[in-house]
Design a protein that fits this description.
Helices cover about 80% and strands about 0% of the residues. The chain is mainly alpha-helical and about 250 residues long.
Amino acid sequence: MLPLWLKAAFWGLVAGSALLVGAAAGYFARVSQRIIAAIMAFGAGVLISALSFDLMDEAYRQGGFDSTAIGFVGGAAVYTAANLYLARRGAKHRKRSGKQQPSESEASGSGMAMAVGALLDGIPESIAIGVSMIHGGAVSAVAVAAIFLSNIPEGLSSSAGMKKSGRSRAYIFGLWGGIAFISGLASLAGYSVFSRFSAEVIAATTAVAAGAILAMISDTMMPEAFEHAHNLAGLITVLGFLIAFILTKLGS
C-alpha cells in the first residue's frame, strides 16, 4: 500500500498530465479557434464549480468564515500581483490560441515569462489536491477530475498559440511536461507541509488556492473563451459548471 505522501504526488501528476494531453492536441491537431474557445469556456465552468462546492465549502467547514475569506482574497491578490508582473514580461497572452503570444525576437525573455506564468497557473490547483488528502487520507476525486478536465483546454490553447508564435516543439512539450512533474511535487508539498498545521491554516491554504484559481480563470481563461465563442461562451461555461456540480453531488 502506497504511503499517503506518494499518493498525493501521484494524483497531482495525474491532474497535471492533462496539460500534456491538451498540448499534444493543440500542437498536432488542426483545431479551430472557436472550438478551442468553447473547450476553454467549458474548463472554466468546471473549475468555478469545483472551487465553489469543493474547495471553498471545505475551507469554510474546517476554518470558518474568517480563515476562508482572508485566504480567498489573499490568494487572488497574490496571483494578480504575480500575473501583472509576468504580463509586463511578455506572458500576458500565455493561454491564447491565436497570434497574441509574442515570439522571443519580439519580446526577449517572454519564453521564460510564459513558463513561469504557466507554473503560476498550475501550482494552486496542485496544492489543493494535496491539502484535500490531509483529513481522511482520501483524495478529492471531484477536485482531481475538475482540474484534469480544465487542464486539457489550458494546454491545448496555450500550445496552439506557442506554435503560432514560433516556439519549438521541444520548448512546448518540455514546458508542459515539466509543469506536469512539478504539479506532482506541489501536491506532495500540499499534503506533507500543511498536514502539520492547524485546521484554520489548512482552511486558509485551501481558500488561497481557490482565490488564485478564480483570478486565473478571469484573467487568462475567459478572455480566450469569449473572444472566439462569443455569445455561446456563457452557455458552455454553465454546462461545464453543471458537469462538475453533478460530480460533486455523486461523490458526496
